UniProtKB/TrEMBL annotation:
InterPro entries: Glutathione-S-Trfase_C-like (IPR010987), Glutathione-S-Trfase_C_sf (IPR036282), Glutathione_S-Trfase (IPR040079), Glutathione_S-Trfase_N (IPR004045), GST_C (IPR004046), Thioredoxin-like_sf (IPR036249). It holds the Pfam family GST_C. Residues 1-80 form the GST N-terminal domain. It comes from Stenotrophomonas oahuensis. It comes from the Bacteria. This is Glutathione S-transferase N-terminal domain-containing protein. Residues 85-206 form the GST C-terminal domain.
Length: 206
């Protein structure tokens, strides 16, 4: 049995849950609703950062969401999601890393301010700057999708689409002025045809 630790409100946990459903994996979701608390506490202690997600596959424990996604795709031998050919794989991983670094850094303040309404994020000027940076990066994604005319790394749905689909869902739900991004909108619609999208990505967006 594969154990997945973390609340489903976490964007990084949702990456893993979406992939698990897409792969048709048999898994146990710990820490989602207070159940299995002893197992969840024990598993979280295995991550020195104290963060989620964490997975346990038998005796093997792994943390960091993108590493978990790579592991599960490779474990399932899904070369469509994570190619073995070096250049094709590098393109997928490039966009995964971009999501985890540049894009996440840009959206954090405005999302925490306007969606989560966290008391530590009340500077409206900082929120506006965050949204402007996020919009600029989403325009970069829009250009990439206009070039591929399909999915982020090319003609095939990959792990890059999972991680960036979740960031795009957050962009769509965050209040504020945003540019019209037709390639992003069309691509987000295409994601709806993949298992797990409604449960772990759409999150209430029509």
């Amino acid at each position: 049995m594969l154990d997945v630790l973390g609340k489903s409100t976490s964007i990084n946990v949702r990456k893993v849950l979406w992939l698990c459903q897409l792969l048709g994996l048999d898994y146990r979701h710990l820490g989602a609703d207070g159940t299995h608390s002893a197992d969840a506490t024990a598993l979280q202690s295995r991550n020195p950062n104290g963060l989620v997600p964490v997975i346990r596959d038998g005796d093997f424990v792994l943390w960091e969401s993108n590493s978990i996604c790579r592991y599960l795709a490779a474990r399932a031998q899904r070369d469509d999601l994570l190619p073995q050919e070096p250049q094709s794989r590098a393109q997928v991983e490039q966009w995964m890393d971009w999501q985890a670094t540049d894009l996440n850094t840009a959206w954090r303040y405005v999302f925490m301010s306007r969606v989560r309404q966290h008391p530590a994020y009340t500077d409206e000027a900082a929120a506006a700057t965050s949204l402007a940076q996020w919009n600029r990066l989403m325009q970069q994604l829009d250009q990439q999708l206009a070039d591929t005319r399909a999915y982020v790394a090319g003609p095939v749905f990959t792990l890059a689409d999972i991680v960036l689909g979740l960031s795009t869902q957050r962009w769509l739900m965050t209040p504020g002025e945003k540019p019209d991004l037709p390639a992003v909108q069309a691509w987000f619609g295409r994601l709806a045809g993949h298992a797990g999208f409604d449960q772990h990505c759409r999150n209430g967006i029509p």
